[in-house]
Amino acid sequence: NNTTQHKRAPAVSYRGKLDNSTRQIMSQKKEQQAFDEDNLMFGTVPVAFRCVPGKAYNYIPSNLTEVDNTEHEREIAISKYKPLTKEFGEEYVGIQGPAMPTTRLEVKKSSDLSSWPEILRKPLLKVGLNEKHDLKGFACGVRSAIVKVNGQWFRLKGCGNNDIGFPIRINKFNREIRGCMFPSTAARELHMSNLISNTLKPLGILGANEAMGWYEYEAFKQNVQLEKKGNPPKWEQVKTSSYLLPRIVRCCGLFKINGDRRLDCHVLNGLELLLPRVCCSTDLKNGVIGAFPNDRADKDKGTPQDTSGPMMMFEIFWHDSMQGKFPKPGEGVTMSLDSLVDIKKLNITETAPSFPTKSIIPGGDGKEKLWIKYDECSPTNVELLHTKNPLEPADKGYPSLPKQNSWGKVWDSCEAVLKEHYKTMSNNNDNDNTTTPQSPSLLKYLYYRFGYECGTIQRALTDGGISWGTYEDPLGYHCNAHANNLVLLAEDAKDHNQSFLAPLDLDMSFTEDNFVLSYYTLDGKTVNKSGKKDSSKWGLYLKQEVTGFMKTLAGDMESSTGVTNIAPMPRHMLPLKTALRDVMLRAFWDAYSKKKALYPADPKLRKPSYALLKMALIMTSNNIA
Fold first, then answer.
1. What pLDDT score was predicted for residue 449?
2. Half-sphere exposure of 395 (CA within 13 A, CB side)
3. DSSP code for 535
4. Per-residue pLDDT, 370
5. Judging by DSSP bridges, how do beta strands 510-511 and 501-503 pair with one another?
6. Nearest to residue 225, comparing CAs of 180, 188, 175?
7. Backbone conformation region of residue 476, classed left if phi is above 0, alpha if psi is from -120 to 50, else beta
């Protein structure tokens, strides 16, 4: 009841088997540590966990079932679009819970945790590194963390907002509890992770998370809330009177994982920070700028319009041509994609990069101005400070270099692999008698494969009657299909089938059979019942999902992936970045249209590809998704 007194549980002593990578983090300061490849692929920023009161439940697929899409169930779903009222108690007024446009899941709970590692069988909550704790792992987001036990990596999604528990955040129109999942979202993520993994498996693509179960935390008192303060405004912790809110159950989802580093903020950002070193010998005028079509804006000036330009035109014309239609392969007006770079003409010369000790630029001193776009920009609006261009060393967003004592050994190993690869490629190209087709540059190959895998995943969801999480509600449009909701698989991930990426963050996903907005209209912040079902809405949101996904691959700075990441570089390298984003966008559409891949997965390129990818991850090793 509302007056029950709760305290944080005392730490529970545990002396279980931890992996060397976890023990290493526990005994050394991060700045002084020599990390290994396992850390690189999964985690480097340490976090601590404490066992706390609550319950843990095992996921069994047959125990989670979708209810029928009836009028009664739809009304239950729509009722969640409004904040809580006095009916729950005065202290609950204005709290907004999760609201997805889908009917609910029925859940049968199983407390059989015999298949779980012992340390994970009690609810774990993130606490400060200097507080008393039972286990250490690594950060993988504000509310999530990962840990390795008995050789297996696990993700805990919803184990605390950093190390301050589950604070209330004060928004403009409501309040919300941060740092956790809830019974409905935990169940949905577990259920949809399983469903989508089964959908993708025949295509040789893995899911990022294997559903395992969830925690339900016992409520405990807190006295911190988050408010936006300052200039520029930031979320800050503010002391407040204590609150308990026991009627709101805070949950954490548990998953076995196949990777953790995100495509956008880790992989693409890292590769683009490497461009000045990897491509220092590339003929930018003829090999890159010359590969753009003549009508690409400002090509003659050597500054072809970035990929978001053609993407914007594609979005307009394709959606207009597809009104009232379901997005079938190859349909719609796509002429805007003709202005993308000619992949076959794109000629990139690569070299194995040395460790960047002073600057991302070979021979640089770390004081260079770096650019995120061609035009200078000095925003006065504090909300747009991330668009300042060019960046100088004192600016937020200027790249910080990795520490050689932390990553030098891994880098040297990757550099040796790349040198051998480029030497072999050079010898093959010089051999007139070779009958082996020339392989593409690693960058062209990787960007094409990333785009093709993203398009393959999106087409599988579209055809399978699944939305990643795209819909409209009184707060606006939401789209969970974006570049940061894919992880890079570990190089030796089981059953990887030569693929690189795996999707995750599925707590907002739903199926066509249980979609409810076909029966409602939105008028501002009001949701009204329709006179009849509008079957075209499902296709409308799927089309929004496709172009929303593509915009994030194009690097559109107006599209949200949940984090703000930029990879500034010398101004003369920007056309190469644009060309590679073009390659990725073209590959996405090839796959979504079910066209044959220009560059199929090549087992011979996996080892050198991962050598380059590991270097990219070293460049972004401190980024948190």
1. 98
2. 22
3. T
4. 96
5. unpaired
6. 175
7. left
Q: In what order do the strands lie in the sheet with 124-127?
A: 54-58, 209-217, 251-257, 152-157, 144-149, 135-139, 46-51, 124-127
534 φ/ψ sector (left φ>0, alpha ψ -120 to 50, else beta): beta
Pairing of strands 234-243, 222-229: antiparallel
Query: What pLDDT sits at residue 185?
Result: 96
Q: What's the pLDDT at 16?
A: 35
Alpha carbon dihedral 429, 433, 434, 437, in 10-degree steps, equals 80
Q: At residue 563, what are phi and psi to the nearest 5 degrees?
A: -140, 155
The four Cα atoms 250, 254, 258, 259 give a dihedral, to 10 degrees, of 30
Q: What are φ and ψ of residue 335, in 5° steps?
A: -60, -25
Q: Is 603 exposed, middle or buried (0-12, 13-18, 19+ CB in 10 A)?
A: exposed
pLDDT means per 10 residues, the chain with 625 residues, are 33 35 40 76 93 98 96 95 91 92 97 97 97 94 94 96 96 92 97 97 96 97 93 88 96 96 96 97 96 91 93 95 94 95 96 95 94 89 75 90 94 97 84 52 97 98 97 82 95 93 96 96 84 92 96 82 75 97 98 97 96 97 84
Dihedral sign of CA atoms 62, 63, 64, 70 in order? positive
Q: Which two tokens stand for residue 592?
A: 């979504």
Look at the block and give the residue holding tokens 């990962």: 146
And the tokens for 441?
């540059």
472's tokens: 């409209």
The pLDDT of residue 560 is 58
Q: Residue 139: its pLDDT value, please?
A: 92
**Burial of 142: CB neighbours in 10 Å, binned 0-12, 13-18, 19+:** middle
In angstroms, rounded to a whole number, what is the distance separating the alpha carbons of residues 354 and 415? 7
SS (H, E, C) 19-88: CHHHHHHHHCCHHHCCCCHHHHHHCCCEEEEEECCEEEEECCHHHEEECCCCHHHHHHHHHCCCCCCHHH
CA angle 496–499–505, rounded 5-degree value: 90
Across-strand partners of 569?
371
Find where tokens 């995943």 sit.
Answer: 457
What Å distances lie between residue 541 and 33, 60, 465, 518, CA to CA?
47, 30, 12, 11
Q: How far apart are CA 624 and CA 440, in angstroms?
A: 31
- CB count in 10 Å sphere of residue 477: 11
Q: Which two tokens stand for residue 493?
A: 């991930």
Q: How high is the pLDDT of residue 440?
A: 80
Output the CA angle 434-440-446, nearest 5 degrees: 145
pLDDT value of residue 11: 31
Q: Both tokens of residue 340?
A: 């993308």
The per-residue pLDDT for 14 is 31
For residues 105 and 68, what is the distance between their CA atoms, to the nearest angstrom? 10
**Rg of the chain over CA atoms, in angstroms?**
25
